[in-house]
């Protein structure tokens, strides 16, 4: 999607993605985050959620991938320009399925070749409960 294709107020929803134990283990290896709440089932049983949870940063990363798949034409994307107001609102468990609902909230033309689109993203679990909310800023090309 090019800058002109984004309409203020429009909403789109991504496909779903089920979170696996392999996702958590691989993310821990990549990030170095081996906190027991993510990695140790016995420890997590006595924790605030009663079981292991996925890393918030993992779910955020997965949500950016789901969001990028919604852009259609990846050639139009210049850069992931930033993120504002990131909040982790509920835990994600192994076996949960997440999807992204995004709403276009702002557009700013930078020059004749590109602009920045602000997308209010809500990451939802399979029950429709928000687990992460944030505003993503995407720099995209214009059609010229």
Description:
This protein is α+β, with helices and mostly antiparallel strands. The chain has one domain: Hotdog Thioesterase (Thiol Ester Dehydrase, Chain A, Roll), CATH 3.10.129. It is 24% helix and 37% strand. The protein contains four helices and six strands, in the order ββααααββββ. Strands 1, 2, 3, 4, 5 and 6 form a six-stranded antiparallel sheet that branches. The mean pLDDT is 96.
Overview in brief:
The protein is α+β, with helices and mostly antiparallel strands and 144 residues long. It has helices at residues 21-31, 36-39, 41-45, 56-69; strands at 11-13, 17-18, 77-88, 97-109, 114-124, 130-141. The chain has one domain (3-141): Roll (Thiol Ester Dehydrase, Chain A).
What is the total domain count? 1
Q: List low-confidence stretches.
A: none
CATH fold node name: Thiol Ester Dehydrase, Chain A
CATH architecture: Roll
What top-tier CATH class fits best? Answer: Alpha Beta
Find the structural class using helix and strand composition.
Answer: alpha+beta
Q: Any idea what the radius of gyration is? A: 17 Å
Fourth-level CATH superfamily:
Hotdog Thioesterase
State the helix count: 4
Number of strands: 6
What is the overall shape?
Answer: elongated
Mean pLDDT: 96
Order of helices and strands: EEHHHHEEEE
Give the N-to-C terminal Cα separation.
13 Å
Strand content: 35-45%
Largest sheet: 6 strands, antiparallel
Helix residue percentage: 10-25%
């Amino acid at each position: 999607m090019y800058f002109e294709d984004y309409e203020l107020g429009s909403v789109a929803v991504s496909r779903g993605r089920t979170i696996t134990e392999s996702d958590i283990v691989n993310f821990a290896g990549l990030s170095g985050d081996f906190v027991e709440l993510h990695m140790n089932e016995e420890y997590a049983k006595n924790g605030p959620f009663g079981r292991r949870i996925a890393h918030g940063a993992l779910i955020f990363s997965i949500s950016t991938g789901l969001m990028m798949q919604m852009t259609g034409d990846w050639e139009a994307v210049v850069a992931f320009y930033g993120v504002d107001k990131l909040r982790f609102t509920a835990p994600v468990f192994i076996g949960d399925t997440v999807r992204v609902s995004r709403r276009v909230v702002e557009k700013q033309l930078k020059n004749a070749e590109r602009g920045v689109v602000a997308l209010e993203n809500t990451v939802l679990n399979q029950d429709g409960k928000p687990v992460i909310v944030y505003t993503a800023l995407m720099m995209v090309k214009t059609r010229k």
